[in-house]
Every structure is written in structure tokens, then in C-alpha cells.
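CO-FOLDING WORKSHEET

Operator: S.A.
Ligand of interest: zinc ion
Run index: 243
Mode: holo prediction, single chain
Checklist:
[x] sequence pasted
[x] SMILES validated
[ ] output reviewed
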Amino acid sequence: MSCQWRDKVALYVDNELEAPAQQQFTAHLSSCTECPAAVREQMEFKKALRLAGRSFSAPPELHAEIYRSLHPHTTTSPWWKWILAPLCAMLLAAVSFLLWPKSGSTDPMVSGLVDQHITMLASGRLDVLNSDSHTVKPWYQGKLPFTFKFPEIKDSPFTLVGGNLVFAGQNPGAEVVYQIRQHKISVFVFQARDAAGNPGSNRDQSFTVNAWRQGGLQYYLVTDANKEDAGKLVTMFQGANGS
Ligand SMILES: [Zn+2]
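OUTPUT RECEIVED:
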């Protein structure tokens, strides 16, 4: 028997369901035996498409090669070639655009981190699974070229679940995962790179995303928990890492 949510998996991973349905699906993931695997599979596909889109650009020699193979004994005047090459390029650009996965966010970094959060929810996989920050924090030592402090959560509604080592391009970062009620929160920490790219807080459809920069590090928080809960954890992180 197949789960009734199965046909919504593709919409879910692209964050294209209505916000309430998106949240219901997130909750459903923890109880369903079929959907988490389907979501993981779809995320892999999405990642592969994105990488293919990024790495593919046809060099001019390839255009020439294709042209020659199509017209082995051509006597066509040269101007025709000059028209054909840009047409090919335009066609390739149009195809790449159509293949590019749609996303609610315009910042590719934020979209990638929302994808990572969904993958973590679907797989339940964490590199280090521990509720004690004194175990999770040292786990990152030697794996990251920077350090940051974990906030004290003893008297808060949050519990620590664990952490992952994640990559944005070539740059390693931390994904620290917390839980509040039924919701998971991912806090991502990377080295801050340029002056731009501090989107503040926004709602990527059904996911709350907060971004802030502190002490040379770039933080992102992604969760399906509400804005108030997210804000609370942001404040705690900022407090822990203040000078
Ligand atoms: Zn299901």
C-alpha cells in the first residue's frame, strides 16, 4: 500500500506546497515508513540536476564539431555559422533555465541550506548524535577552521539533538540541530566571506530562515518552528558568541 503523501514529495522538496501542507508533510516524515526514503531520493536528484546545470557549458569547439558532423560537405556561406552558434547558446541557456529547480528563495545559499535541513529531517542522519554540547562542540575540533560557542540551553525550551559537518561550495561549516516541541531547528555556521549576503530574516514559504553575522562568522537558522522560537534561539546564540 502506498502512502497518500507520496505524490506530493516532489512539490515538498521544492518547497512548493502551501505553507500548512508543507508543515504537515514535515510532521508526517517522522511517522511514515515510505516518504523519508522518497524525499531523500528526490533531494539526490535535485542536487544532481543543480550540479549538472552549474558545470555544463558547451565550448565553441563543440558547437563547431556538431556543426561539422551535421554538414560534412557543407558549402554554406560563413555568415550562417555566426548565426547558428549564438542560436545554439541561446537554446542551451533556455534548457538550463528550465532544468534549474525552482525555489522560494532568491539566495542560492539559503536555498541550499533549506535543502540540507529537509535532507536532515528526511534521513534523520546526524554525524554526531548527542544532547550534550560538551560532546558535540569538541567533535567539530579539527574539522572546522574556526570555533564558536554553544548557548546554554539548560533553562530553555530547546534540546540539543546533534550536529553535521556540511559544505557550502568548498567551505566547511557546522549544522547544529536543536529540537523544540515537534520541530527541528538547524543552526548553520560558516566563515563569513564577503561584505554582502546578509539577508536578515525571511520566510522561505514554510521555513523560517534567519541569517546574521557575528565575530567573522556567518550564521543561518532554518526551521519549520515559528518565528518566535527561532528568534529566541538566535538571541541565545548571539549572547553566547558576544564579546
Ligand atoms: Zn508518507
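REVIEW:
The first helix runs from residue 9 to 13.
The radius of gyration is 22 Å.
[x] output reviewed
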